[in-house]
Amino acid sequence: MRNILVLISVLLITLVVSTTDVAAYTTVVGTGLQTDSLVQDEPESIIGTHFLDVKEADTNGRLHKLSKYAGRGKWVLVDFWASWCGPCRGEMPNVVAAYKKYHEKGFEIVGFSFDVDKDDWQYAIKSWDMPWIHLSDLKGWESEAGQIYGIRAIPDNILIDPKGIIVARDLRGSELEEYLSKVFD
Length: 185
What we know:
The chain is an alpha/beta fold. It has helices at residues 2-23, 86-102, 118-127, 144-148, 174-184, and strands at 26-27, 34-35, 55-57, 63-65, 75-81, 107-113, 133-135, 156-160, 166-169. A 5-stranded mixed sheet has the order 7-6-5-8-9, with helices on one face. The chain has a two-stranded antiparallel ribbon with strand order 1-2. A two-stranded antiparallel sheet has the order 3-4.
């Protein structure tokens, strides 16, 4: 009897793991594409792939697609963050400095927030001095953008070149400045 219970437990664990793997194969909303390339354990696996579109609302509730900004001749940093995230608060001065230095040269940022409270989200945007477009579906870790890009920890980001190709991920601190200086200086 004990062996049967152990066997059943092993089978259930295997089923749960398999179901989790299957869930990683997501349909990208609005594109009709099936993909698992952006939802893998290896964060660097998305480098060299074309960005996938995602649509979320700005602070006024208006929907925006990432494709409105990315793949249109500018360098775009897609920044994943939240108002409640201490490391995000620590990283934001680097992101703000990069924006101020390179925006006029063709650098954009699209922020995707993992917030669930609209007031906290809006307060952070203002108090952290983040003048770029901010989007969120206010679903926290269940956000569409987070699911599509396989975000498992924040802060995180992806850098998209002018043609829409993801060229870097998780550029933090001086790494972001160094990368952008090679592009723009």
